Amino acid sequence: MMTFKMASYTLAFLFGGILATQYQPGLEYADIITNEPSAENPENLAPAMDSVEMVGKKLFLNKCASCHNRNMEDALTGPALSGVEARWSEYPKEDLYRFVRNSQKMIAEGHPQALEIWEVYKPTIMNNFNLTDKEIDAILTFVEYQSNR
Ligand code: HEC
């Protein structure tokens, strides 16, 4: 009886710990989109953003914005992401997905586009992200949307 209880507490504690370390506090939407209705500007129109872009925005703010400037135009710890699909357009889309999932692997393999950006930013290493193609597409859609504002 006691052992079962203790085991479940231990499990709960472990999972809680894992969740706590994975959790990155989300930035507020208002941080990035200035024409959203807010307490100060209630008459602002909601941005014409479809749900793919909203998903991409959420992912970008939670996972990428700490290193990639949210204005998409200026470098930060990492390069500005505006125009990134064009820079990678000589290669299959899969390569860009793979870079987001594990950039160091592609750099080690000597992928020319990965090496080009690494030459500029090394030794700064990008995190690996366990994201699906669809999630990365959503982020890229948001990057595009944000670049053209
Ligand atoms: C810890 C900082 C950091 C985070 C977080 C980060 N990146 Fe990066 N990113 C970099 C750096 C630095 C580079 C340049 C290459 C290098 O040094 O590895 C880069 C390069 C890239 C490139 C290649 C750009 C180009 O012009 O070829 C893409 C695409 C990219 N990141 C996407 C993302 C996405 C999407 C996310 C969020 C899911 C993300 N990054 C999160 C630091 C980061």
CATH architecture of the domain at 53-149: Orthogonal Bundle
> What string, H for helix and E for strand, traces the elements in order?
HHHHHHH
Largest sheet descriptor: none
Helix content: 40-55%
**Gap between N and C termini:** 61 Å
The assigned structural class equals mainly alpha
Indicate the low-confidence ranges by residue numbers. 18-34
Small molecules held by this entry:
heme C
The CATH C-level class name of the domain at 53-149: Mainly Alpha
Percent in strands: under 5%
Q: What attributes does this structure have?
A:
binds heme C, 7 helices, 149 residues, mainly alpha, 0% strand, Cytochrome Bc1 Complex, Chain D, domain 2, 54% helix
Characterize the structure shown.
Mean pLDDT is 82; it is low at 18-34. The chain has helices at 2-22, 51-64, 84-87, 93-101, 103-109, 112-121, 133-147. The chain has a domain at 53-149: Cytochrome Bc1 Complex, Chain D, domain 2. The chain is mostly helical. The chain is 54% helix and 0% strand. The structure holds heme C. The site of heme C has 24 residues, from helix 2, helix 3, helix 4 and helix 6.
